[in-house]
Description:
Number of strands: 10
Structural class: alpha+beta
Radius of gyration: 19 Å
Shape: globular
Strand content: 25-35%
Distance between the termini: 25 Å
Largest sheet: 6 strands, mixed
Amino acid sequence: MALYDVPAxxxxxxxxxxxxRRDDGYHLLQTxxxxxxxxxxxxxxxxRDGHVMREGEGLAGLAxxxxxxxxxARALQKATGTQLGAQIRYRKTIPxxxxxxxxxxxxxxxxxxxxxxxxxxxGRQDLMRLALPLGADVPVFIYGQPAFAEGVGEILSPLxxxxxxxxxxxxxxxxxxxxxxxxxxxxxxxxxxKISVFADWQKNNAPDNGFFENGFFGRNDLEPVVxxxxxxxxxxxxxxxxxxxxxxxxxxGSCFFAEFxxxxxxxxxxxxxxxxxxxxxxxxxxxxxxxxxxxxxxxxPLRSWIxx
Length: 308
């Protein structure tokens, strides 16, 4: 028994406000999550010896016990008492340290897929409880739909979002999340907003002839800290703005996204950027490592694999 080519999609944060800090050091957030069709891919072969083993590109220096995929599999084993194991292979596309949730998404897809492969029968809420200790972003991938998130990211409410496409640009630097949240310069007192305010903004800021005049809702409070610590990331952001793109950093960075009405528009922009990178039109353009055009997803591709 096996499950092959299981997708683990990236996420973007349409906005990210830091509204406070708990006594235990965790930050209180408000954000809007959306999945995009930029995916890692995992495959799972059943093992009957109980061992969880993983293989794939880009794993050098990552100990098995530190791998979120392995930790997710072992958390499911412990919670259900199953004696089964798995051989896990994955192909990475989502850049590490890009603020796109690649590791969290891999962990969530592992929980969903092994719950199916091992026939452990956990529902969505049970899997979300297993997901939270793995990381604050992991539960939203189990939740399986666009979400307005509060608390440390675990209080989720469904969002209805319009069809959109995105250009995602990757600077050459990755950004470790912990260093950003520990910065004394981080804003930690943004005022809270109601989900209805965000929903109304979405309705009232429809694009005119395919162009977004008003940019994005709110802001990403982490951007100033990242730009100060990683000037090359900030330089890429400035270059994208010079190209006429309203670009926002996702999560704690370092990747940026720009929003379009159609995938065709995003693809045109991607080709233009790749062309400027190739001819090294400027140092900032040459600093962009990669760029993708991808649609926003209305739901997680594995949402139907879990009983609600």
